[in-house]
Design goal:
The complex is a heterodimer of chains A (about 110) and B (about 120).
Chain A lengths: L2 E3 L3 E5 L4 E8 L6 E6 L6 E6 L3 E5 L2 E6 L4 E6 L8 E8 L5 E3 L3 E6 L1
Chain B lengths: L3 E4 L2 E4 L5 E7 L5 E7 L6 E8 L2 E4 L6 E3 L9 E3 L8 E8 L10 E2 L3 E5 L1
Parallel strand pairs in B: 2-11
Antiparallel strand pairs in B: 1-3, 3-8, 4-5, 4-9, 5-6, 7-8, 9-10, 9-11
């Protein structure tokens, strides 16, 4: 079967750095997405990786290793507003999205 | 401002009743999607539509129905045949005609509770 694994919950301190991991086992790979979802709100797009390496976008960076079936989202200079769930999703060989259950990130002052 | 509007935000229903969730977009997107989000699980695709008057079943279509009479609108009906309808429902759209076309734009969701 197809599987996306993310930690259920993580806690970090305001101003610090946190890395949220995502491992996947899917039938084929055509790209990986990260979305942010505040409680009770719409998910919003953060990043898309299809080639190996690091993509940086302001305080957020996303890394992909296709050979390891692994990605991470790196958040720097954490702010209280970064408290949210972070969803990892993979496009499989049929170009359909397989979603992880999400990682709830709690930021403490 | 362009975006996706879902209504109602909260909905309560008795067992055996059908209920329709509204989804409207003014982004001029061709493709629209309905997902279901349950605690501890990833989003699951219910139905999607790539073009007006056409729609396809997703992974968990049983007990649901949709229509796409206008480009802007993609309502979802949760029927009494859906065995476990209590969930958070998300509508989305994309510029292309499939999930592979890139970023999805989501509505703020509708939380349905069956009493």
């Amino acid at each position: 079967g197809q599987n996306i694994d993310q930690p259920t919950e993580m806690t970090a301190t305001e101003g610090a750095i946190v890395q949220i991991n995502c491992t996947y086992q899917t039938s084929g790979f055509n790209g990986l997405f990260w979305y942010q979802q505040h409680a009770g709100e719409a998910p919003t797009f953060l990043s898309y990786n299809v080639l190996d390496g690091l993509e940086e976008k302001g305080r957020f960076s996303s890394f992909l290793s296709r050979s390891k079936g692994y990605s991470y989202l790196l958040l720097k200079e954490l702010q209280m507003k970064d408290s949210a769930s972070y969803l990892c999703a993979v496009l499989d060989s049929n170009y359909q999205l397989i979603w992880g259950a999400g990682t709830k990130l709690i930021i403490k002052p | 401002d362009g975006g996706i509007t879902q209504s109602p935000k909260y909905l309560f229903r008795k067992e055996g009743q059908n209920v329709t969730l509204s989804c409207e977009q003014n982004l001029n997107h061709d493709a629209m999607y309905w997902y279901r989000q349950d605690p501890g699980q990833g989003l699951r695709l219910i139905y999607y539509s790539q073009i007006v008057n056409d729609f396809q079943k997703g992974d968990i279509a049983e007990g649901y129905s949709v229509s796409r009479e206008k480009k802007e609108s993609f309502p979802l009906t949760v029927t009494s045949a859906q065995k476990n309808p209590t969930a958070f429902y998300l509508c989305a759209s994309s510029t292309g005609t499939s999930e592979a076309s890139g970023e999805l734009f989501f509505g703020e969701g509708s939380r349905l509770t069956v009493l």
